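Key result, reporting period 2: structure in, sequence out.
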C-alpha cells in the first residue's frame, strides 16, 4: 500500500502577491471600492514594463495616473482594467510555471496574435479574450 503524500501547496499566485483578491465576489468588491495604486505599480514591476506603458494599456493618461497616485486609489473602471491584466498575468504564470517566463511572454511579439505582444492587445475586451484563448491553447498543447 502506498504511503499518502502530503498535498502540495497551491502555486504562487501573482494576484495575491499584487494585493488583489482571487475570489470573484471579493474581486468585484475591491474593484468597485477602488483598487490601490500600489497594485498597479506592483503589476508594472512584475511585468517588467514602465508604469507609463502599463498606463497606456489600462487607459490612464500620465496626468490621471498622477492624480490617482495622490489619491492612492484607482477609479472602478480603471481598477477593472488593471485587474483584467493582472488576471491574465496570473493565468500566464500558471501556464508557464513562473513569473519571469510569463512576463517575457507578455511583452514579446507572438505569431499566434498577429506578431503582436500580448500586452499590446490587453487594452480591449477582444484582445483580452484572444490572449486568454491563446493561453488555453498553450496550456493544452493545441498550437495554431
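The corresponding designed sequence is given below.
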Amino acid at each position: 500500500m502506498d504511503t499518502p503524500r502530503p498535498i502540495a501547496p497551491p502555486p504562487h499566485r501573482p494576484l495575491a502577491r499584487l494585493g488583489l483578491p482571487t475570489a470573484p465576489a471579493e474581486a468585484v468588491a475591491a474593484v468597485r471600492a477602488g483598487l490601490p495604486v500600489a497594485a498597479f505599480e506592483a503589476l508594472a514591476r512584475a511585468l517588467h514594463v514602465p508604469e507609463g506603458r502599463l498606463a497606456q494599456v489600462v487607459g490612464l493618461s500620465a496626468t490621471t495616473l498622477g492624480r490617482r497616485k495622490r489619491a492612492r486609489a484607482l477609479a472602478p473602471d480603471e481598477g477593472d482594467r488593471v485587474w483584467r491584466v493582472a488576471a491574465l498575468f496570473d493565468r500566464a504564470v500558471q501556464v508557464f510555471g513562473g513569473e519571469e517566463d510569463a512576463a517575457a511572454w507578455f511583452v514579446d511579439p507572438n505569431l499566434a496574435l498577429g506578431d503582436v505582444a500580448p500586452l499590446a492587445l490587453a487594452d480591449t475586451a477582444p484582445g483580452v479574450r484572444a490572449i486568454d484563448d491563446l493561453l488555453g491553447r498553450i496550456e493544452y498543447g493545441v498550437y495554431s
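The chain is about 65% helix and 0% strand. The chain has one domain: 25-139. This case is discussed further under Risks and Mitigation.
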